Amino acid sequence: MYLRNDNQRYIMGQGYYLAAAAGLPLFDMEFVQFFPIIIAGEGLPATMVYPPIHKAMKLVNGAGEDLAVKYKLGSLTDAVMKKRDELSIELYREAERSAVFLDCRDVPRDAWEGYPLSLLRPVKHDFAAKPLPISPAVHFMMGGVMTDDACQCGLPGLFACGEVTWGLHGANRRGGNALMECAVFGTLAGRNAARFNEEAPKGTSMEPTETRTDGFGAPGDSRRSLGDIKTEIRKIAWHNAGVIRSAEGLTKGLEAACEIHRELDGFVPATRRERCAKADLTAAVVTLKAIITASLARQESRGSFFREDHPREDDANWKKNSSLIYDPVEKTFSVTHAAAL
Fold it and tell me: The pTM is what?
């Protein structure tokens, strides 16, 4: 749902929306992690450039300046591993002025045979002839739904694991543990869901919390296509709730998201594909509202979260977790805070 990300294209916040629509609170949705070096060239896959970064590689801006020298980063590998958030902020600011590139032209040919450079060989780019366009991009969400030790949510029978859940990573996930999280908690969630199903009274069912409207309408019921709406959602997320946030940008983003939500409500799908696309975009815009609402409330910077109008961490006032509850009638989130667990 962000303009720049390295996730699967069909991931649009559906899990967060399902939980919120079911009445479950979403925690710490303002904490979105960015990876600083993601391929951003036209027609190229949005793939992260894995560390260690070869010592012959350089980050440069449109003027050819070596950004590691400009910002006194030292080793690019250390910057990516230990200063990921600071590097993402500086690269985002550079990208606002001109394109940013990873210059690989001095990398020896034999270095491309080994890990991690071998992962880039399928990318259709002449690394030896021209620098590679890159950008920071969304990489992970720390916020989500609370689960117990069995991976069950507050709604009996609803189990969750992976990135949709909250509580394991604090304000910023450490690199290298996401896949292990999925393996461990995926196993727990699956086993416990199966056990719950075996023990549940037969013939019981869970009723949907929102009324479903079946049927299709005539094409042209909205001013714009769903593709255009998707593009706008992604731009709002990136520019108003991205690497660098502020009260002004977040407020404008929330207003725009609310307008898109109203537009989606008025869109009558003409095909099954449009019905699915509308559902995905509704999930995206509700998730975006959650991120923005929590971001507006937190008046500090912490972990992966950076507000340029509140650039300092404030333990005295903001060492707290945010909790969001969705109102499906008003289509808004209310936010409260409690001392960090």
Answer: 0.93
